[in-house]
Specification:
The complex is a heterodimer of chains A (186) and B (241). Helices cover 37% and strands 19% of the residues of chain A. In chain A, strand 1, helix 1 and strand 2 form a beta-alpha-beta unit. The two termini of chain A are 13 Å apart. Chain B has one domain: SGNH hydrolase (Rossmann fold), CATH 3.40.50.1110. The chains are: A alpha/beta (186), B alpha/beta (241). At the A-B interface, helix 2, strand 4, helix 3 and helix 4 of A face helix 4, strand 4, helix 5, helix 6 and helix 7 of B.
Chain lengths: 186, 241
């Protein structure tokens, strides 16, 4: 079995513990401070470039906060599978690929208008879960850092309790996720 | 009963068909989607929005699937992908501002933004400022990557739901990037007509057949009728009806 891990780079510890429960090999699809667009982008890339119908997969998807927007700036970074020219803009971001991006700070209220970003999560979650179902990939989704807004509908494979994960809590959370998967997703 | 649902930008909306307006009831009801419906005595919904982006097209299609799909109804989705360097923002829920467009199932709080958007049409300072900073949002590679990803995803979802559909380009062709070429390889060109051929884009296709365009590069009604007749043949060849 192969465990497809989507979300922040910080999720790698959780993915590792979940992979032990499943005795699965990790396919690390985490990327920087992933936004919901990042997850959709990398899922589509994986399905078109690396998916093997003979393999058995389970996908673990961390749904990030709504206040992240994926942008791209050509900084001559590697264009590998992930394309490192992509970066995620969010209100507390300090490390910009170009100084001009600091000007966006003044527009945060418009960039992260609540109904629009809830909407974005809604349609991307729908697209991600639909594609996984079409490809017959069992999956579970979960929150990290903050609870998902109440207006965003979620599939039955969505583990609602959230946690701010660090090294100490990752294993405990991974156990909870695995139990949830066995009860609701497989 | 069959309903033709057309989703896209101004070319799908039918801008300038009436000879003077970007958006009007006449335009909305005489663009290529409604024309295809009239050829076959079908119902139609025109979700085309002047200035709309490919992100809008992706959002509006999924929104329709989630909120408006009637189980007993037969649908033909016409998805007219638009050009890059467009985005959408939304007026705050708590203020009175809307972006006035005539169309079906349109959330008028959303604002389509393009490189050519006239600032006077935008009602808040923050959104006007966004036009100045728009190059920061418009990375060409990202735009083509997203477009390919949206088309791939919607094609899979519509096919899985057994919803008849056709995709095509209205303004420009989908270009290859280092990221999207394998995604494009996975798009079924039976249902996405000539995604990479600039001659098969609605705008150019019509011009090559002698249809006049307006000063703002939109087709008149005759080109919409001709495009609908072309789509009608494709739909019949696919045994859609």
């Amino acid at each position: 079995m192969r465990l497809l891990g989507f979300g922040d780079k910080t999720l790698q510890e959780t993915h590792y513990h979940v992979s032990l429960f499943f005795d699965a090999e990790i396919v690390d699809l985490t990327y920087k401070d992933a936004s919901i667009q990042t997850i959709y982008r990398l899922l589509v890339k994986f399905l078109c470039e690396a998916y093997n119908p003979l393999d058995e997969y389970v996908a673990l998807i961390q749904i990030p906060t709504t206040k992240r927007l994926e942008l791209r700036h050509n900084s001559n970074q590697d264009v590998d599978f992930f394309d490192n020219n992509y970066f995620v803009y969010y209100p507390k971001l300090n490390d910009f690929p170009k100084i001009t991006y600091t000007k966006l700070k003044k527009l945060d209220k418009a960039i992260f208008e609540q109904t629009m970003i809830n909407d974005r999560h809604r349609y991307f979650i729908y697209a991600i879960s639909s594609l996984l179902e079409i490809y017959k990939i069992d999956y579970m989704m979960f929150n990290a850092d903050e609870p998902l807004h109440k207006d965003i509908p979620v599939p039955k494979n969505y583990y609602t309790p959230y946690a701010s994960l660090d090294k100490d809590t990752a294993m405990y959370f991974a156990e909870k996720l695995t139990r949830f998967y066995r009860d609701h997703c497989s | 009963m069959t309903t033709v649902v057309s989703i896209g930008c101004s070319h799908t909306h039918g801008s300038m068909i009436d000879g003077e307006n970007g958006t009007s009831l006449y335009n909305k009801e005489n663009a290529y989607g409604p024309q295809l419906a009239k050829l076959n005595d079908f119902n139609f919904l025109n979700l085309g929005v002047p200035g709309a982006s490919n992100t809008y097209i992706f959002r509006a299609t999924i929104n329709f699937l989630q909120k408006h799909l009637q189980k007993q109804e037969d649908y033909i989705f016409l998805i007219g992908w638009t050009s890059i360097n467009r985005m959408e923002m939304r007026y705050d829920e708590n203020n009175k501002f809307t972006h006035e467009t005539i169309g079906d199932l349109i959330d008028k709080k959303y604002i389509p933004l393009t490189a050519g958007t006239i600032k006077g049409l935008i009602k808040t300072y923050q959104h006007r400022k966004m036009l100045d900073l728009s190059p920061l949002f418009y990375d060409t590679v990202q735009a083509y990557d997203e477009w390919a990803g949206y088309a791939f995803g919607l094609q899979k979802i519509l096919t899985q739901k057994n919803i008849k559909h056709l995709m095509f380009n209205t303004c420009e062709e989908l270009q290859i990037t280092e990221n999207n070429y394998r995604i494009i390889d996975n798009i079924d060109t039976t249902y996405y007509l000539h995604p990479q051929n600039s001659e098969e884009v609605f705008l150019i296709w019509g011009m090559n057949r002698g249809h006049e365009i307006t000063e703002c590069w939109h087709h008149k009604e005759e080109a919409h009728i001709a495009w609908a007749e072309y789509l009608n043949i494709v739909c019949k060849n696919l045994d859609y009806y």
